[in-house]
């Protein structure tokens, strides 16, 4: 049962694809205050008093736990590479929550600007959701359980994106690969070491001067190079950034300027933001005509054989604007004219003059500043809309530009696409990766916690930078990241420029990496099958334990294990030097380990808490009682998996329905794609 309440004049975000009539009256849960109310001022506030045992699920990409209680989260897409616990906003805006407990219901606040969820931060028992303008649609969803509410929500937002099968293989990435030789070396070293690999990602250096839809001079014969790698079963996946470089003679820039396809300032001039290429303009992806134009630019690469992309910097990230820089320079000039030296050599201002702290603050706040997001406008069907009012829709619509273009380029074919920034609705066009995480042990767990929350919001093709993006990784950290990553649909090792090299062959005893990656390919038929079933049935691929065992008071509090598909539970190790971990089993399960010699150990463990040993070079999972899963022989790329090698592991006498298809086309709803396998 879904009710929709409209307040003011909402912007149509296109997150919801189903027509739902508007309800009269007020939501059955909580209290809403709109304009003029003493509580909300000019804005909107939803208030709900939580029972002490209520659990709050949702919010997709966010800091902290699976249970979101006890913190304040702000939907405000932000390029922030420090994903620490104190953060309120990350790259996405996913305004869907489920309150599960005394009363169980879901809420979707369809609002494209900044929106805050205070979930027991100000008062432990109170959830307050508020935003500046009382112009939004609120969906209230009732159902039998949290899981049922998710399914209903997913149904109204449309089917989740389905990538090609190769995208379930392993991908290697690193910011800094630049030439054909760099890419060839990665492909060759993976193949030489028999380390499985399906994709190599091309970060910004493949372009000429970071200009979208260009190639640096090393790639003159790009189509040949794409073919050369594809012949070795490796796909190249280029990055596309949001900002288009300002440069006379660059066709994308010139066409955009001529056709007024870029976001503009109030005076009608094109807004300038500095990002990787220096000064750029932002394509106005909220304008359908400009979106079509930008999307068609991807053809430059698809025409040369490219079958997948990652969209980046699309919050959109701004290093500084021309205006912001001018203000900072002015402040610096005033500071230079007025500062006096302290005894320790630092500068101190005289009364009323600019202080070193003020100047420092200004310089630090140049990037991604709220002032800049209020300096430019979108043209949405002839109506001018200030960017900050619809800020959270930019990444969504950049990815939609590509997705709509792929449908024009080849309506039968699937393309790989994932994005950094997103809003609910984008889940129909692509997946997401969780941005610039760190080579920190705590980030294995953070990734694990985000996965089910993202699934609730429709994002199924998800994963994090394995090994960690920022900071130097270590061999054991990468192996433990892989212990989780072998299960995430998007499985990619990516690292920042200047960090320690972390391709799987950079460390001693490469066979351990070969084994861990191999397990991914052995499980791929199962993982793909469960992904497809989740996508086709608006279900979750990753569930919190509480979704499967809602009556089990211990299971609902577990924050470091996940249910995957309908058959298995995962419990990765996320602490350095640990030889294993404690795990809670809500029912009897089979503890399965993929051992380095290729064999599989199985042990039945009863309901309760167990300490399980999992060595660095072992991959572990738990099969639910009465179930079984298919396991194939290891392969070095997704197309190389021998489906005839499949054998079943798990409980005797059980069955599994395997979904499979060619992984290329969109013939999903075909009965022939399902086969029953018996144990
Ligand atoms: C951003 C992306 C990161 C990429 C870098 C350079 O930080 O999040 O993945 O490597 O830009 O393009």
UniProtKB/TrEMBL annotation:
Residues 36-118 form the Glycoside hydrolase family 31 N-terminal domain. Residues 542-629 form the Glycosyl hydrolase family 31 C-terminal domain. Keywords: Glycosidase, Hydrolase. Residues 161-529 form the Glycoside hydrolase family 31 TIM barrel domain. CDD domains: GH31_glucosidase_II_MalA, GH31_N. GO terms for molecular function: carbohydrate binding; hydrolase activity, hydrolyzing O-glycosyl compounds. GO terms for biological process: carbohydrate metabolic process. PANTHER family: ALPHA-GLUCOSIDASE (PTHR22762), HETEROGLYCAN GLUCOSIDASE 1 (PTHR22762:SF120). Belongs to the glycosyl hydrolase 31 family. This is Alpha-glucosidase. It comes from Candidatus Mediterraneibacter quadrami.
């Amino acid at each position: 049962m879904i009710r929709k309440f409209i307040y003011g004049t909402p912007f149509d975000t296109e997150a919801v694809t189903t027509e739902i009539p508007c309800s009269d009256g007020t939501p059955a849960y909580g209290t809403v205050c709109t304009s003029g109310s003493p509580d909300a001022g000019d804005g909107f506030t939803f208030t709900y008093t939580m029972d002490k045992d209520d659990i709050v699920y949702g919010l997709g990409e966010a800091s902290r736990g699976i249970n979101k209680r006890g913190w304040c989260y702000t939907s405000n897409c932000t390029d922030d590479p420090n994903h620490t616990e104190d953060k309120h906003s990350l790259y996405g805006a996913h305004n869907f929550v489920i309150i599960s407990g005394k009363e169980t219901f879901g809420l979707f606040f369809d609002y494209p600007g900044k929106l805050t969820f205070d979930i027991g931060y100000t008062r432990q028992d109170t959830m307050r959701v508020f935003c500046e303008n009382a112009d939004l649609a609120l969906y209230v969803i009732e159902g039998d359980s949290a899981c049922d509410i998710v399914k209903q929500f997913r149904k109204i937002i449309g089917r989740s994106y389905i990538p090609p099968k190769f995208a379930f293989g392993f991908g290697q990435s690193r910011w800094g690969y630049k030439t054909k030789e760099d890419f060839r070396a990665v492909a060759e070293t993976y193949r030489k070491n028999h380390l499985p690999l399906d994709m190599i990602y091309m970060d910004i250096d493949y372009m000429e001067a970071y200009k979208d839809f260009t190639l640096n001079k090393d790639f003159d014969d790009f189509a040949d190079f794409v073919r050369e790698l594809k012949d070795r079963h490796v796909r190249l996946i280029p990055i596309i950034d949001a900002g288009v470089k300002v440069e006379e003679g660059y066709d994308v820039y010139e066409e955009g300027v001529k056709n007024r396809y870029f976001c503009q300032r109030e005076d009608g001039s094109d807004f300038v933001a500095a990002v990787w290429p220096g000064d750029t303009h932002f394509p106005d992806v909220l304008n359908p005509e400009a979106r079509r134009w930008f999307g068609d630019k991807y053809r430059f690469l698809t025409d040369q054989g490219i079958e997948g992309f990652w969209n980046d910097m699309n919050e959109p990230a701004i290093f500084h604007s021309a205006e912001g820089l001018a203000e900072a320079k002015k402040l610096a000039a005033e500071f230079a004219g007025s500062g006096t030296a302290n005894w320790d050599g630092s500068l101190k201002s005289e009364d009323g003059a600019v202080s070193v702290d003020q100047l420092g603050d200004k310089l630090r706040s140049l990037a991604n500043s709220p002032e800049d997001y209020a300096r430019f406008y979108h043209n949405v069907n002839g109506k001018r809309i200030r960017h900050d009012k619809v800020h959270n829709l930019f990444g969504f619509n950049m990815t939609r530009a590509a997705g709509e273009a792929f449908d024009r380029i080849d309506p039968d074919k699937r393309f790989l696409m994932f994005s950094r920034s997103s809003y609910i609705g984008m889940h129909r066009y692509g997946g997401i990766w969780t941005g610039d995480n760190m080579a920190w042990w705590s980030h294995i767990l953070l990734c694990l916690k985000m996965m089910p929350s993202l699934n609730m919001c429709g994002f199924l093709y998800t994963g994090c930078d394995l090994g960690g993006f920022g900071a130097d990784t270590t061999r054991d950290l990468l192996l433990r990241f892989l212990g989780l990553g072998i299960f995430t649909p998007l499985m990619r090792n990516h690292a920042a420029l200047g960090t320690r090299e972390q391709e799987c062959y950079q460390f001693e005893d490469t066979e351990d990496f070969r084994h861990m990656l191999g397990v991914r390919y052995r499980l791929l038929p199962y993982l793909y099958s469960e992904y497809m079933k989740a996508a086709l049935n608006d279900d979750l691929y990753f569930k919190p334990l509480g979704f499967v065992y809602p009556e089990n008071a211990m299971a609902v509090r577990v924050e470091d294990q996940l249910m995957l598909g309908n058959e298995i539970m995962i419990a990765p190790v996320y602490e350095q030097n640990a030889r294993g971990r404690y795990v809670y089993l809500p029912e009897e399960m089979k503890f399965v380990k993929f051992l380095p010699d290729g064999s599989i150990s199985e042990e039945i463990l009863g309901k309760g808490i167990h300490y399980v040993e999992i060595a660095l070079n072992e991959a572990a999972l738990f099969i639910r009682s009465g179930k079984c899963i298919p396991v194939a022989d290891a392969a070095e790329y997704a197309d190389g998996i021998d489906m005839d090698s499949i054998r079943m592991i798990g409980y005797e006498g059980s069955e599994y329905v395997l979904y499979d298809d060619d992984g290329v086309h969109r013939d999903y709803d075909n009965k022939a794609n399902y086969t029953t396998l018996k144990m």
